[in-house]
Amino acid sequence: MIVTNQALTMAVVIRHDGQQVTLVPMRSGKLAAQRLLASQFNHDWQTSDYPLEKAVQSFLAHARDHGASKEVLNGLERLAKRDQDVVASLF
Fold first, then answer.
1. Backbone angle region of 45, left / alpha / beta, with phi > 0 → left and psi within -120 to 50 → alpha
2. Cα–Cα nearest to 55, from 4, 17, 18
């Protein structure tokens, strides 16, 4: 899921268990995961119509250039693979 906040920061949600949300906000430098309670996430972030595949590829490119935590890389790669598997199953 792609989300934005009031400052128009884009983020990719890499985990949501109903009580806690882990997201990766786009920022300069190394990408790091941010954890929020679901209630705080729902208050501060809104779903975006930006295409998931395009956003994930952009975040992965940024991670290659500037670095990212292992958790972030694993989450983004898992989303990219899931998206690829869904498209492949259509054919």
1. beta
2. 4
